[in-house]
From TrEMBL:
SUPFAM superfamilies per record: Homeodomain-like (SSF46689), P-loop containing nucleoside triphosphate hydrolases (SSF52540)
Organism: Dyadobacter fermentans (strain ATCC 700827 / DSM 18053 / CIP 107007 / KCTC 52180 / NS114)
Residue ranges occupied by any Sigma-54 factor interaction domain in the UniProt entry: 164-393
Protein name: Sigma 54 interacting domain protein
A GO biological process held by the record: regulation of DNA-templated transcription
Gene3D superfamilies: 1.10.8.60, Homeodomain-like, P-loop containing nucleotide triphosphate hydrolases
Pfam families from the UniProt entry: AAA_lid_14 (PF25601), Sigma54_activat (PF00158)
Record-linked CDD domains: AAA
SMART domains cross-referenced by the UniProt entry: AAA
MF annotations from Gene Ontology: ATP binding
InterPro entries xref list: AAA+_ATPase (IPR003593), AAA_lid_NorR (IPR058031), Homeodomain-like_sf (IPR009057), P-loop_NTPase (IPR027417), Sigma_54_int (IPR002078), Sigma_54_int_dom_ATP-bd_1 (IPR025662), Sigma_54_int_dom_CS (IPR025944)
Length: 479
């Protein structure tokens, strides 16, 4: 039997049928999904028109619009076109275990049903679209809140490229490497002892790149418990684990189209290293409890004070992750290897802390400077910064006259502890500086450094040049 034969041009709707249709229209107007709409149509129309079931036919908008089991063995007795603003949306198909609907459906019914069902479907599609948009708004709102928190931190710290101070040879080599890599998107691995300024250099790289208009997101891998670091990096969905009361955006997602600084990367657990490697290589992440991957465009800058190659050999760091990070390594020199920068750094720190504390300090005495130059600085630039802050707080007038430097045993850096043993070249350099300061910078003649060291003047000058001893370090008179 054809679809046209299922329609009766002469039969009119009865009062009972009209009442059912009126109730049907009211229920369809509030149907929350295609599955619910389809169920309403089945419940309301089946008794009147004696079909087995009906189905909304459409390319799937959701998992609700599925084909019922057993449909292939039944007859399609009627198909009503459904429309949206762009044309035909799909069809409402009626099925029966017989080849005809009895009694025949009135001719006017399909148009009426088509209008109402099409309107109900339009409402459902609009609601689903609105829900998706609201979810996206929530996502971006959460991301903006995280970014705002980071920007507030950045504003408080106020770092700039000018904060990296250094005119010594080792620092000039660092600046040269920075100029070669900053403007690229390459991964950078910063190596060096604690306190050498790795985060400052990471910020300088970011601020000199094409990503500088976006924030640099920092993660201290050593400060996050092992069971939380995956959530910190990749985020999680609400309810994905105990305590996950709301969705959280991870640092990778937050750093999209920006820079992610992974400090203390050598402290990351081995199982997490594999997930980090995949995120870097594939440029995609998956939130804990998430159902799909999220594409990210993130530049990685990693830093560590560990010897990563040794960590690889000891089985504590993945070799594949090491080589993925070791694209452009930059080793920051310890302060004991760049003593020519000590006076510059000390003056910069004194000026900053004096301003912050409302003091007027014009200079550092030569005795204090001699002590600063002779000290090995196991804590590097960070230790120098803290010492200068204390000097400013203790200063009684406009000159820094005293500095309270710890002895090797007091600082916990005694040579016997094996933490740091100076090279012959370093010992020789410091000894020559002490002698030169003792002679007030006099190199030759009676009482000069060459005489005290039992060296020829030319030999001493060669050593001064080779060891990078600057004039500022030599000519320091007592005040």
């Amino acid at each position: 039997m054809s679809h046209d034969e299922a329609l009766s041009p002469n039969r009119q709707l009865t009062a009972q049928e009209m009442a059912v249709l009126t109730s049907l229209y009211r229920q369809l107007a509030t149907a929350p999904s295609l599955l619910a709409l389809q169920q309403i149509l089945n419940d309301q129309l089946k008794a009147l028109f004696h079909f087995t079931h009906c189905r909304i036919s459409r390319l799937p908008l959701s998992a609700d619009a599925h084909v019922p089991a057993g449909e292939a063995s039944e007859h399609e007795v009627l198909a009503i076109a459904l429309h949206d603003e762009s044309g035909t949306w799909g069809h409402l198909r009626f099925y029966s275990d017989r080849e005809a609907i009895s009694p025949a459906i009135p001719m006017a019914l399909p148009d009426q049903v088509s209008s109402v069902v099409s309107l109900a479907i339009a409402n459902i599609v609009s609601t689903e679209k609105l829900s998706r948009q609201l979810e996206e708004i929530k996502h971006y709102q959460s991301q903006l809140e995280e970014q705002n928190a980071y920007l507030l931190e950045e504003a408080k710290e106020g770092f700039s490229y000018d904060d990296i101070i250094g005119s010594s040879g080792p620092m000039q080599r660092v600046f040269q490497l920075l100029s070669q890599v900053s403007f690229t998107n390459s991964t950078v691995l910063l190596l060096g002892e604690t306190g050498t300024g790795k985060e400052l250099v990471a910020r300088a790289i970011h601020n000199s790149s094409a990503r500088k208009d976006r924030l640099m997101v920092r993660v201290n891998c050593a400060a996050i418990p092992a069971h939380l670091i995956e959530s910190e990096l990749f985020g999680h969905e609400k309810g994905s684990f105990t305590g996950a009361f709301e969705r959280r955006i991870g640092k990778f997602e937050l750093a999209n189209q920006a820079t992610l600084f992974l400090d203390e990367i050598g402290e990351m657990p081995l199982d997490m290293q594999a997930k980090l490697l995949r995120a870097i290589q594939e440029r995609e992440i998956e939130r804990i409890g998430g159902k799909g991957v999220i594409k990210v465009d993130v530049r990685i800058i990693a830093a560590t004070n560990r010897n990563l190659l040794e960590e690889v050999q000891q089985g504590r760091f993945r070799s594949d992750l090491f080589y993925r990070l070791h694209v452009f390594p930059i080793t920051l020199p310890p302060l004991r290897e760049r003593t020519g920068d000590i006076s510059l750094l000390a003056k910069q720190f004194v000026g900053r802390f004096a301003k912050n504390n409302g003091k007027s300090i014009s200079r550092i005495s030569s005795n204090v400077m001699k002590a600063l130059l002779a000290y090995p600085w196991p804590g590097n630039v960070r230790e120098l910064e803290h010492q200068m802050e204390r000097c400013v707080l203790l200063a009684r007038d406009h000159v820094i006259r005293d500095v309270l430097l710890p002895s090797p045993t007091q600082s916990g850096h005694a040579p016997a502890a094996g933490i740091y043993t100076k090279t012959h070249e370093e010992n020789e350099r410091e000894y020559i500086i002490r002698v030169l300061n003792q002679c007030n910078g006099k190199i030759y003649g009676p009482g000069g450094a060459a005489q005290l060291l039992n060296l020829k003047v030319g030999t001493l000058n060669s050593k001064i040049k080779k060891l990078g001893i600057s004039k500022e370090q030599i000519i320091l008179r007592n005040h």
